[in-house]
């Protein structure tokens, strides 16, 4: 927003304040349903390994994980597994294996949504290529295409380490650290394999789809909060979801970059930059408030509810 004039910033601030926040509240509750579906899906992945965690603990672990991710990248994945290890006695290495699979499914789902988005908006492709968003993405891609010698040296070191480990593992197989590492890896692999042993595969597929349907609706209903975007259709909501998700991946929590991406995306669909920025901040604020509020509530309720549970058992 540093390139905007004072008047434009005032217009964004005015739109933000005058928005109908009932739509933001509805978006938050839709978001909670998506996270509830995620908790159910995670529980389904843990069941083939013989674990049956309570849904409330699984849901609160998911919400605390999202809260932790606002602080540090990937901290959420570790923290939610740690919560189930503490309250449900599920080994972290096994639950973490399921989280890795879950993240893989999310990436595939995002690419599928991206593909559908481009099919629906082929007529906007020329406008997209002219946008600042496309230019930034192209720059990131070019950096990946030309990673430089540091990256290749890093890959070489990893390959060398794996080679040395394979050649010398018989010499260290009796060491305690090796045995601990082996247990960790085997548990991790078991967690990954859980996907092939699902007891309710159709329910797993339903929740995998429902998570993203809820994400879409969570973004779409916020369009109705200001008059300038209330006419936008569901397919525009998909574009906002896809490119907004990429922004959150690029920058932890999407701080700063998310509203800009939304503004650039909506500009393609005829929404002025100021109104696009306002919409971006409304979407980001609603999602962030949801994560902080329900994440903190989960942190407070988790030990309390489990203490009552242990006292009654």
Could you say how many structural domains there are in total?
Answer: 1
Structural class: mainly alpha
- H-E string: HHHHHHHHHHHHH
The residue ranges in which pLDDT falls below 50 over 5 or more consecutive positions are: none
Mean pLDDT: 81
Beta percentage is: under 5%
Largest sheet: none
Secondary structure tally, helices = 13
Shape: globular
Secondary structure: helix percent = over 70%
Please provide the count of β strands: 0
Determine Rg (CA atoms, Å): 22 Å
Distance between the termini: 55 Å
Written account of the structure:
The protein has helices at 6-18, 21-46, 55-71, 75-87, 92-120, 125-130, 132-145, 149-172, 176-193, 201-220, 234-250, 257-268, 273-312. The protein is mainly α. The protein has one domain (6-308). α3 (55-71) packs across α13 (273-312), α5 packs across α9 and α11 packs antiparallel against α12 (257-268). The chain starts with 5 loop residues before the first helix and ends with a helix.
How do the strands and helices of this protein lay out in sequence?
Layout: H1 6-18, H2 21-46, H3 55-71, H4 75-87, H5 92-120, H6 125-130, H7 132-145, H8 149-172, H9 176-193, H10 201-220, H11 234-250, H12 257-268, H13 273-312
Q: Gist?
A:
The protein is mostly helical. The protein has one domain. It is built from 13 helices and no strands.
């Amino acid at each position: 927003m540093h390139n905007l004039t004072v008047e434009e910033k005032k217009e964004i601030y005015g739109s933000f304040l005058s928005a109908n926040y009932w739509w933001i509240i509805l978006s938050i509750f839709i978001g909670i349903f998506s996270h509830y579906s995620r908790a159910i899906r995670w529980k389904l992945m843990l069941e083939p390994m013989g674990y049956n965690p309570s849904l409330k603990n699984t849901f609160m672990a998911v919400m605390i994980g999202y809260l932790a991710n606002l602080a540090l990248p990937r901290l959420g994945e570790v923290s939610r597994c740690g919560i189930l290890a503490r309250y449900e006695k599920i080994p972290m290495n096994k639950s973490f294996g399921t989280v890795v699979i879950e993240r893989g499914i999310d990436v595939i789902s995002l690419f599928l949504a991206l593909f559908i988005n481009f099919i629906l908006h082929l007529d906007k492709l020329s406008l997209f290529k002219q946008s600042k968003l496309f230019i930034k993405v192209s720059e990131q891609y070019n950096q990946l295409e030309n990673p430089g010698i540091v990256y290749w040296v890093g890959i070489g070191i990893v390959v060398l380490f794996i080679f040395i480990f394979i050649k010398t593992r018989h010499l260290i197989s009796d060491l305690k650290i090796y045995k601990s590492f082996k247990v960790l890896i085997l548990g991790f692999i078991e967690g990954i394999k859980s996907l092939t042993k699902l007891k309710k595969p159709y329910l797993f597929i339903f929740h995998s789809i429902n998570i993203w349907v809820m994400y879409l609706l969570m973004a779409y209903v916020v369009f109705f909060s200001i008059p300038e975007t209330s006419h936008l259709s569901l397919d525009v909501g998909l574009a906002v979801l896809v490119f907004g998700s990429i922004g959150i991946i690029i920058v932890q929590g999407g701080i700063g970059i998310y509203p800009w991406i939304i503004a650039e995306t909506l500009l393609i669909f005829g929404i002025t930059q100021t109104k696009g920025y306002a919409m971006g901040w409304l979407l980001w604020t609603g999602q962030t408030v949801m994560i902080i509020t329900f994440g903190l509530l989960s942190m407070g309720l988790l030990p309390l509810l489990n203490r009552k549970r242990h006292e009654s058992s």
